[in-house]
Task: structure prediction
Amino acid sequence: MAGHSKWANIQHRKGAQDKKRGKLFSKLIREITVASKMGGPDLASNPRLRLAVDKAKSQSMPKDNITRAIKRGSGELDGADYQEIRYEGYGPGGAAVIVDCLTDNKNRTVSDVRHAFTKFSGNLGADGSVAYMFDLIGLLFFKAIQDEDSIMEAAIDGGADDIKSMTDDSFEVITSPNNFENLIEYMGKKGFKPSESEITMRCSTDANLNQKEAETMIKLVDALEELDDVQTVHTNAEISDEIIENL
Result:
């Protein structure tokens, strides 16, 4: 799950669940392979590859796995020819959903994604049906920061576009994708290292879900994220703290 602050606790709960090494490594390897294919194998000149490798390292992926994925992408080793595909649709309560995939079999992927939507009260839409509501952003998440003034000052000086403080003393810092790496580096020098960081999607409008819709929505996201071809799922679903507690 990615892309919405109100889902932070669900996002990080699911993040822990999704760290089943085999599945997580498979998704990371695909991203590294495609990034290497599209921008070349040199990390210094390929920001997308650099981010993918950094994420793989943060999950303790062995160096040999990373190297092989880069070589497969650059053509030095044989491997599957993955292509990027985005599916858009609506979930329970009219919530917008974007599903980004990397696949070597488009027919299989669209069938699996459509099945998940249909099973959990959603439906696929046409290209562009919900994407116009989302913006690409860089998101940095900081846990339990007590010195609010210092982190806000560092974020502003580093070029952040927005800063959100949470009731649990955590912070979300939002920046442009182009400034993402620079902001991480700058805030690190100021003593603030994000516990999570990613390039993700943020929606301009929210869809408020009731308890039943929220339960089904979480099942839909679970089902989509379990698919091997799915890399990320973005949604504008809004679930209240009270409903989250009940769930």
